[in-house]
Design brief:
This protein has about 425 residues and is of the alpha/beta class. It is built from 17 helices and 13 strands. About 45% of the residues lie in helices and about 15% in strands. A 4-stranded mixed β-sheet has the order 1-4-5-13, with helices on both faces. The chain has a 4-stranded antiparallel β-sheet with strand order 6-9-11-7, with helices on both faces.
């Protein structure tokens, strides 16, 4: 078998066999096939696509390239969730303790963020002394004892995906739906859960800007999961505006705590958290559609059990629960005011995320250090009417010099008009549910 022939085959839009895909992934992982040939194959895939069988084979080849997690010793059906990411998306931190409080063990591996704000692991590391690098035995012990654990992904979890993504990033082959889907699902499958709920974002703050692209990605990932023996479903959700009021690691953690205390929070955030928890419970089999899964999720929050679960996890992973209920506040807080009166009818959500990154909440490069206290607190949401001079946001940072540029970026991302517009639906579509 020759890599040259495989490249030529895909160039002609022919389907690759499982054996050929295994040969490519194994050869690249073990440095037996050079970057330039894999680059050529990635471009051919980008232009010619992959069918469902090829995409599933690529996914499982990447799973087989490294370690896998065996969750069978938990003695229960396990469920995982994944979001394709957005601005202010802190749902994992709220949903995981809700589901765990309902009796479903959650053994979750999450990643760091690159871009607007940190990922789930960065948000948790905003808690002083919180440990995300956890040995496998300790990881399982925490899940068995407390019902949940969120840890950083093992370096040897689907290592082929890491190598392939680094190459895709510099060869303009990131935006291939089969490659995106295989990348995401290889890590989810390797992490061992029996069922997977996907939150696929669409809108100006999402990777998939259009509903059609989000739908294609969601369907592809659901098909991969089910073909690989994992019960998989997806929600296509809106990211045309930031989710919640808080953008930034410690700030988002505070919003999660407020929500889990049953306090008032932005409606889309609370509605999405409950929808995700409801569907995770249904996927687990603990409840069926329409049989009270939503009521179970709400009871876990309003009884305080979900917050208690989160506190248990924080304590078990080395953090002090008081540190996320009473966090450090950034020394520099600036108020941004509206430059004109009108209804907020458009947000360039990605630009709002970039403004938060300018303040220190995210990373331009993997080696950049995050300012955990940095970020933005929104004072208005889509559709609100504001008057000129009214406060519309707070900018939080440890770097005072970043405020003018971030403020300008933030203001440029908003459009105020004379007439109001109806906001888009929160959940565009359900797939596999």
């Amino acid at each position: 078998m020759r890599i040259y022939d495989i490249i030529n085959k895909k160039k002609r839009a022919e389907a690759l066999t499982t054996e050929e895909i295994n040969f490519v992934v194994s050869g690249f992982t073990h440095a037996e096939i050079p970057d330039y040939q894999i680059s050529a194959l990635l471009m051919a895939i980008c232009l010619r696509g992959m069918n469902p069988d090829e995409t599933a084979a690529l996914t499982m080849a990447m799973v087989a390239s490294g370690d896998t997690v065996d969750l069978s010793e938990l003695g229960s059906v396990t469920v995982d969730k994944h979001s394709t990411g957005g601005v202010g998306d802190k749902t994992t931190l709220a949903v995981v303790p809700i589901v765990a409080a309902c009796g479903i063990p959650i053994a979750k591996m999450s990643g760091r963020g690159l871009g607007h704000t940190g990922g789930t692991i960065d948000k948790l590391e905003a808690i002083p002394n919180f440990q995300t690098a956890i040995a496998p035995d300790d990881f399982m012990k925490i899940v068995k004892t407390h019902g949940l654990c969120i840890a950083g992904q093992s370096a040897n979890l689907a290592p082929a995906d890491k190598k392939l993504y680094a190459l895709r990033d510099v060869t303009a082959t990131v935006d291939s739906i089969p490659l995106i889907a295989a990348s995401i699902m290889s890590k989810k499958i390797a992490a061992g859960a029996d069922a997977i709920l996907l939150d696929v974002k669409t809108g100006s703050g999402a990777f998939m800007k259009t509903s059609d692209d989000a739908r294609e990605l969601a369907k592809t990932m659901v098909e991969i999961g089910n073909n690989c023996g994992r019960k998989t479903a997806a929600l296509i959700t809106d990211m045309s505006a930031p989710l919640g009021y808080a953008i930034g690691n410690s700030l988002e953690l505070q919003e999660v705590v407020q929500f889990l205390k049953g306090g008032a929070t932005e409606k889309n955030l609370s509605d999405l958290c409950f929808a995700l928890a409801e569907n995770m419970l249904e996927l687990s089999g603990i409840a069926t559609a329409g049989s009270g899964a939503l009521d179970m999720a709400k009871e876990a929050v309003y009884s305080g059990r979900a917050l208690q679960k989160l506190k248990e996890m924080v304590n078990a992973q080395g953090g002090d629960p008081d540190d996320f209920e009473n966090p450090l506040v950034a020394p520099h807080i600036a108020t941004v005011t509206a430059k004109k009166s009108g209804y907020l009818t458009r947000t360039d959500t990605e630009s709002i995320g970039v403004a938060a990154m300018m303040l220190g909440a995210g990373r331009k490069r993997p080696e950049d250090k995050i300012d955990y206290q940095a970020g933005i607190i929104l004072k208005i949401k889509y559709g609100d009417y504001v008057k000129e001079g009214q406060p519309i946001a707070e900018l939080h940072t440890n770097n005072k010099q970043s405020i003018p540029e971030a403020s300008e970026k933030f203001l440029s991302s908003l459009l105020f008009t004379k007439d109001a517009k109806q906001s888009p639906p929160l959940i565009h579509e359900k797939i596999g549910l």
